[in-house]
């Protein structure tokens, strides 16, 4: 019998040319444990570039990792400066009106929006790794702060507490983001899928636009809620309060902004038109109010703005307030969403960063230029905003928000993946009709449900033989395939886990039943072999192995032989440890479906397959 | 160019013998939606047996489905009755002491335990589908009711309210089980894996055994908590209260019970010894107390039991009590656990059912016999239990519970699957050190985390060529495989979903980096092709497609060609709808890794691979 490992009396003539299936060599538990930890938490192998370097080189590389300015700084040229100057001033002209507008979204003093475009860009210039990114205020995060804190504390009635809570919330947002990075659990953000982000952003943008109805219509009283029903009820319950002056002004400016954006989109060379448009509307609007004294005819203006720079506000954190949990919750959600938004849209720059890129920035120095421009504004130009009408800010916000409602992406989701579309709509409807948290929870729940459903209800399908080949593929996908008489080949398309083992047992029994019924009705040869193609079974747990043992019993009872094809490394390891390889017989595990079929056919035509005495022979124990 | 679909200028000489990859024919949305709903909720196709039957036959089959007695009743013979009589009396002798003991676990009057072995078996005999199952009290469910309700209401201080809450809880347990069945969402139970059940049952059994220390040591005061720390503190804080008479009696009876079980396990023919042992200990214990008047010397006895049958207790449900939520929660958890226990152990009968099977029952009629025997006991024999010492009941419970601590299964889990072992231990420790709910939540959380981790961190590995074949397999599992010069073949071992698309992008880039570094250091031919084996990619969502698009950009930038091998039906459908097939080029998708490698090799030796002008040719748009 020679090569005892792979030659078996009953099939030896065939077995000699078949490939054996390997059980991977056993690994010490702690080594494999360490490996899987590493793969889970350090998939990017962050220390790779430090390998095989001298200690001083390692130190320098480490410093560069934290301060990328050390990398590009020494190579900085006057040519770069010229480009960065132009792009920096361009993004400043966008950042200033955005800063003032988005601060209003968060119910914070407009001046704070300008601070966000002043200090953070300076820090980013030293520590940031992207040269195109333009740091500043973000609409959705501003809205989140505004709506979540606004539920608890009224910003107009209690401005100091509200301000302090906002500081505290941003502190926790930063703390969360830093911990996610340091603890290497950024993959939590992965659970916010692309579809979730599209729906969520669209919903948030819709909510923000609805909020602007207050400014556009010049209303004095407005609901604290953000859901569409409350907002529309609030708007239409005070139709007599609508200010037509304000409305007309808003519509005109919005039209101008949208037109400039449309034009820039059509002719990318004129990107600066849409970049300059917000500042232009601010200047035009302020001039118009100043000249016509419209502030006395129902057009609200920003009013007095504090000039100069604020002292640092470390002392303003409130860690002892009864509202601390609100601040922490707001911070956490804002942090997660901002991170997810950053990652999701990071690869196709948005708004301000797109402008920065188009303006030809060369390094993060453009952020420094922007910061200086904003500082200049803070120090000397704030009085100029006194006459800026609020309706202009609303128009700027609406115009920016319309860009976030990515209906084309939603249509694409519908076309490509209905489930993703449902996730997207769940997030959108949740945000618009309830609240941001509800939208988020709905979308994540649907997404995770989909993952669990994928595992709980894996696809199983029948394979057939591609004519004139030894290739076996799904009979549904390849209708030209031929059945193999007497053999049922099933593919299981997911790992076999506790969550699907009951289902798979039911489903496999049904496949066998149906195949037997079919063969009976056509009067063909009866079923003799069931081959499982395990190529797509990435892993198996103990519940899965029990399932296989039960299926083996079922097939034995019906006089069928169970054959496995191409089990992977993990599966073979577990089948070996649980002795299932001995149960099924090592000679019934093949490397490819083709070889399994060939072996079955060989036996089918030389001897009866249910030679049960074979099972008791010693070679099964090899 | 003839057959324009599959012949491409640059590779046509090879392409002609390669197999095309099919995009499955488009299916109407509602048809595929209906199909997936059906697969999710009706995997067993319950109406299969009704197909192609006359209406009257359908009605009869449906009636038989609900009342299996209609199936076996007409075929019932005197021979069957003889067997069922013997097995029915045997299980009654086990059910009576079990009923009284388990009622004590639930802090309910012992008589109620007997009712459970009287009415339910009669119903089961008509409607049950298993002939071996012996209906009756279940230890873990009894413990759950006792511990969860006991947290809220003291059974000794407020027995009527407690009793009514227990009724209400069992009502909701039944309601839940019925709804799970009717709504076809029984798969919720699948999320309690085998490992969870082993750990949970072991933990519950440990808790029950700890509770018996009260009875064994004859303690009058005892903690209401079930966690090990409270119980041990309660036991050891009153060492001076221990009753040695009680302890000695308990130890002797426990030893006898364990010995009989050990003996029956070694010699299955004498199963009746362990089946009769509990009743024997009850009789012996009662006789002993009666003769020695031990009840006056520190051995507690059951005392007076109500004789006769109770009226129906429909009126005793309390739907208005402030404790309703407790009752509902208790009912829900008890219902889920009982169901999971039933399903998990259903295939290797436990305790009472094993005895029924061994005693040779033929039909569910054995349950009727048991019910009659129990009724007889209720009507005439309850006074005999007056002198039954509580310590005997404790010994019976401990002996039964020791059988539920399946340490061999836990060792098996450790050997086969470390993760399952962690799940099992999580459930065990949670139940023993905190509470049943905590144990359950821990185990389910770890299990679901594992599923999510499987999807979030899929395996990717390099494939090599098995010598003298066109088979490509993992180089780790098959160390004899050879590298293919200039080609990196990667296998992705899970569906590509939002949860893993970021990870996969990182990991794939790293594989390419590492391969290029390796080739550079050995000075071999540079990398030209990257082939993804998609055999194990069961599905892809829009985030996954974006990932592929990004990877395509990365490979393009490095002058590498991206090639796909064997994408499945779902994947091809999505790639087609999202136009990724056009992006990658239809001629770069092959049916097998072997054919993909052959085509790459062909090109590698005839022309340069990064002939970028090729991408702009019209045939890409086919």
TrEMBL record, chains A, B:
The keyword Transmembrane applies. It is a multi-pass membrane protein. Residues 477-600 form the STAS domain. InterPro entries: S04_transporter_CS, SLC26A/SulP_dom, SLC26A/SulP_fam, STAS_dom, STAS_dom_sf. Its main location: membrane. GO terms for molecular function: secondary active sulfate transmembrane transporter activity; symporter activity. PANTHER family: SULFATE TRANSPORTER. This is Sulfate transporter 3.1-like. It comes from Gossypium australe.
């Amino acid at each position: 019998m020679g090569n005892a490992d792979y030659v078996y009396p009953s099939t030896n003539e065939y077995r000699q040319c078949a490939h054996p299936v390997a059980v991977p060599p056993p690994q010490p538990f702690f080594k494999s444990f360490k490996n899987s930890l590493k793969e889970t938490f350090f998939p990017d192998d962050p220390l790779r570039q430090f390998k095989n370097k001298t200690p001083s080189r390692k130190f320098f590389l480490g410093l560069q990792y934290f301060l990328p300015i050390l990398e590009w700084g020494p190579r900085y040229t006057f040519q770069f400066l010229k480009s960065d100057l132009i792009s920096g001033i361009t993004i400043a002209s966008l950042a200033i009106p955005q800063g003032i507008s988005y601060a209003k979204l968060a119910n914070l003093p407009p001046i704070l929006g300008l601070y966000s475009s002043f200090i953070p860009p300076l820090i980013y210039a030293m520590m940031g790794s992207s040269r195109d990114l333009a740091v500043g205020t973000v609409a959705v995060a501003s809205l989140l702060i505004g709506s979540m804190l606004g539920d608890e504390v009224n910003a107009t009635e209690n401005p100091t507490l509200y301000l302090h809570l906002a500081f505290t919330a941003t502190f926790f947002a930063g703390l969360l983001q830093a911990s996610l990075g340091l603890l290497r659990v950024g993959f939590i953000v992965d659970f916010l899928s692309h579809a979730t982000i599209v729906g969520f952003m669209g919903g948030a943008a819709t909510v923000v636009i609805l909020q602007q109805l207050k400014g556009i219509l010049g209303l004095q009283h407005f609901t604290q809620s953000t859901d569409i029903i409350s907002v529309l009820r609030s708007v239409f319950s005070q139709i007599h309060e609508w200010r037509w002056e304000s409305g007309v002004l808003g519509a005109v400016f919005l039209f101008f902004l949208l037109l400039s954006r449309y034009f820039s989109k059509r002719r990318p060379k004129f990107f600066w038109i849409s970049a300059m448009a917000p500042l232009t509307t601010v200047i035009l609007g302020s001039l118009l109010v100043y000249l016509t004294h419209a502030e006395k005819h129902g057009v609200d203006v920003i009013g007095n703005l504090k000039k100069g720079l604020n002292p640092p506000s470390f002392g303003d954190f409130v860690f002892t307030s009864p509202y601390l949990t609100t601040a922490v919750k707001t911070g956490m959600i804002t942090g997660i969403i901002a991170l997810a938004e950053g990652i999701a849209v990071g690869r196709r720059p948005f708004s301000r960063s797109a402008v920065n890129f188009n303006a030809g920035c060369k390094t993060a120095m453009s952020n420094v230029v922007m910061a200086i421009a904003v500082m200049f504004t803070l120090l000397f130009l704030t009085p100029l905003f006194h006459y800026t009408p609020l309706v202009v800010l609303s128009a700027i916000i609406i115009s920016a928000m319309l860009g976030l409602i990515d209906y084309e992406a939603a249509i694409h989701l519908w076309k490509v993946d209905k489930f993703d579309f449902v996730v997207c709509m769940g997030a959108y409807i949740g945000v618009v009709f309830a609240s941001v948290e509800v939208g988020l929870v709905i979308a994540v729940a649907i997404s995770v449900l989909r993952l669990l459903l994928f595992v709980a209800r894996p696809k199983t399908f029948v394979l057939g033989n591609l004519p004139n080949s030894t290739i076996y593929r799904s009979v549904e996908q390849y209708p030209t395939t031929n059945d193999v008489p007497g053999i049922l080949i099933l593919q299981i398309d997911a790992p076999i886990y506790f969550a699907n083992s009951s289902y798979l047992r039911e489903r496999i029994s049904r496949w066998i039943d149906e195949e037997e019924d079919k063969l009976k009705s056509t009067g063909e040869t009866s079923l003799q072999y069931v081959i499982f193609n395990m190529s797509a079974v990435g892993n198996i747990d103990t519940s899965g192995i029990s399932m296989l043992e039960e299926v083996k019993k079922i097939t034995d009872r019906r006089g069928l032989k169970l054959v496995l094809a191409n089990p992977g490394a993990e599966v073979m390891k577990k089948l070996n440890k649980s002795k299932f390889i001995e149960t099924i017989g090592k000679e019934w595990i093949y490397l490819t479906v083709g070889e399994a079929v060939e072996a079955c056919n060989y036996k089918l035509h030389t001897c009866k397959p249910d030679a049960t005495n074979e099972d008791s022979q010693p070679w099964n124990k090899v």
